[in-house]
Amino acid sequence: MRVTVTGGKGFLGRHVVAQLIERGHEVTAPSSKDYDLRSGVEAGDMLLDSKPDAVVHLAARVGGIGDNVSAPGTFLYENAMMGLQLMDSARRLGVSKFLTVGTACMYPEDAPVPTTETSLWTGPPAKDTAPYAQAKTIVLEQGQAYAEQYDFNAVFVIPTNLYGPGDHTSHVLPQIVAKFMEAIDVDDDVLLWGSGSATRDFLYVEDAAAGIVAALENYNDPAPVNLGTGQETPIYALASAIAWELGFQGRIHWDPLRPEGVMRRALNSSRAYQQFGWRYTTSLRQGLPQYLNWIAKENT
């Protein structure tokens, strides 16, 4: 296929592009400097120029909890408009398949863990990241509506917390790593947000990219599908593992007055395995040293 990947120069996008090329697809990855996807005209121009058979929509305004809390309107508007404008342009211009990448933030705060896709509609998402989550949810609804009305092939995957080589984002894992490295440099203690008891499901980026490529090639259903490990890792355990890997000798302090998001998060990915044969292959125990080795090379 000829595939256009929005956000293809970002953290996850680079891995998706590399795996698509390895699989023999022809890939274009325009940047935000080339086209403003919040504009329907520019979204259409991008598709007219690249003429794709399929689109993988990764471009997004992303950030940590602090970013979401400080700019909720921006997160809602930009993410909703990018998805809505691009998918509608793709439908009108005859693109054969449109895959959107969502976020685990879409799930309700009290969803059972490990969380299945049916939990999406059982309640509102957590308040701190709700605008971002709702923007993604409306794009999911758009794909399902377009599938029903126009027989449009819209696919939606929901990865859990990502990490791995190339991650300079404000995701929780690289932010914690950065704090430890700063503390080591100045021989200081580490102060982390929250209580440390919140849990997250950490998925190695290359596994996530493999799931996206597998869904693009083999999944043709508007029902959302999770990509995760199903394993809960408490943030305090993650911090301890990072400290051990880096040889950190100081103390770890927690600030319970700072937000830490939902208290439990892990995704059930049995649907991904049933529908297109995907399951994760890299555990956090394996992936964390690989990520830290990549950071060490970046800093030399």
What is the beta-strand fraction? Answer: 5-15%
For the termini, the CA-CA separation is: 39 Å
Kindly state the mean pLDDT as a whole number? 96
In the CATH hierarchy, the third-tier topology of the domain at 2-163 and 203-230 and 266-281 is known as Rossmann fold
Q: Main β-sheet, in a few words?
A: 6 strands, parallel
Could you state the CATH homologous superfamily of the domain at 2-163 and 203-230 and 266-281?
NAD(P)-binding Rossmann-like Domain
User: Helical element count?
Assistant: 10
Question: What structural category characterises the helix and strand content?
Answer: alpha/beta
Q: Which CATH class of the domain at 2-163 and 203-230 and 266-281 applies here?
A: Alpha Beta
Report the uncertain regions: none
Estimated radius of gyration: 19 Å
Give the proportion of residues in helices: 40-55%
Please provide the ordered H/E string of secondary-structure elements.
EHEHEHHEHEEHEEEHEEHEHH
How many beta-strand runs?
A: 12
Tell me which CATH architecture of the domain at 2-163 and 203-230 and 266-281 applies here. Answer: 3-Layer(aba) Sandwich
Strand order of the largest sheet: 2-1-3-4-5-10
Principal-axis shape: globular
